[in-house]
Structure formats: structure tokens, C-alpha cells
Design brief:
alpha+beta; 5 helices; single chain; five-stranded mixed sheet; 160 residues
Length: 160
């Protein structure tokens, strides 16, 4: 039996394990520089920046998580951004992931969001097929851009 509930601080060690499992699946485990301590601070400190749901099996074993936050689009308004959506590999294909994903969809409506956004790797065919069941629009023509803090510091300190 599967259940979905709001995540609490005590869930973070297992959630962080799931994040690492996702990074391994996405062939980028070395890219995870986040830590459990950072997640505790950023999710449960004075200014939380993310929330999450956990997916449990038999009301005790966490087998999935959906980590999200809100962003603002000047074109669309308030949007829910699904940062990570993870179901442990051995539990995939059993309907549990659908339950978790649909809970996030519901949350976007509860919070008066104009929609929900996320990313999927172009080679992740099982995920793409799953999302297409929801009539998901997958846009092209955009690059994902990011700078690491060290790069930003170098730029800012150079006073360019």
C-alpha cells in the first residue's frame, strides 16, 4: 500500500539518498554537491526555499519524493517548479509514481499556481513516456544556464 504525505525534517536523510540515486541514474553522481545539512537549512531554516512530498510503502518505507518550490513568471504568474521527482527503481511501474505526481499536480492547484514546470533529460524515455500521458508540452529552443558560486565570486571580484 502506498501513501503520499508532506515531508518533514526527519525524512531528509532518506530523501537525500533518493537524490543521490537519481543522480546515479542520470549518470551524474559527481554533480551532487548539496549536503544533508544544506537541505536541512534550506528546507527548514528561517527562510525555507523548498518543500517536498514523500511516497511511503506500508506507511513506513520512503520509496519516493517530489521536491518543489515556487517561481514567478512575468508571462504566466506563479508557477510550481518540480525540481526532483524520484521513485526508487524497484518500485517503478506499480502506480506509486503516478500517485506522487498527481499529488504535486493537486498542490499546484491548491496554491493557485497557473501551472507546473519541470525538466526531463532527452534520453530518459520512460520518464518522457510517463509525462506524455498527461499531455505535457515539452518545449525546445531553450538552453539551461547556470553558474556555480565560485564562478560568480570570480566574476564579481574581478569587477568586470
Amino acid at each position: 500500500m502506498y501513501t503520499v504525505r508532506e515531508g518533514i525534517k526527519e525524512d531528509l536523510p532518506k530523501v537525500f539518498e533518493l537524490v543521490q540515486e537519481l543522480a546515479l541514474y542520470e549518470k551524474a553522481p559527481e554533480e551532487v554537491t548539496n549536503t544533508l545539512e544544506m537541505m536541512e537549512r534550506d528546507g527548514f531554516g528561517p527562510s525555507p526555499v523548498f518543500q517536498f512530498f514523500v511516497l511511503e510503502k506500508n506507511n513506513r518505507d520512503i520509496i519516493g519524493t517530489a521536491i518543489y518550490y515556487y517561481r514567478y513568471s512575468t508571462w504566466k504568474g506563479k508557477r510550481l517548479y518540480l525540481e526532483d521527482y524520484i521513485v526508487t527503481e524497484k518500485e517503478r511501474g506499480q502506480g506509486a509514481g503516478k500517485m506522487l505526481f498527481e499529488r504535486v499536480l493537486k498542490k499546484s492547484l491548491e496554491e493557485n499556481c497557473t501551472g507546473m514546470m519541470w525538466q526531463v533529460l532527452d534520453w530518459n524515455e520512460p520518464a518522457i513516456n510517463f509525462y506524455q500521458k498527461y499531455s505535457t508540452y515539452m518545449e525546445g529552443g531553450w538552453y539551461n544556464c547556470h553558474l556555480q558560486a565560485e564562478e560568480i565570486k570570480g566574476f564579481v571580484n574581478d569587477n568586470r
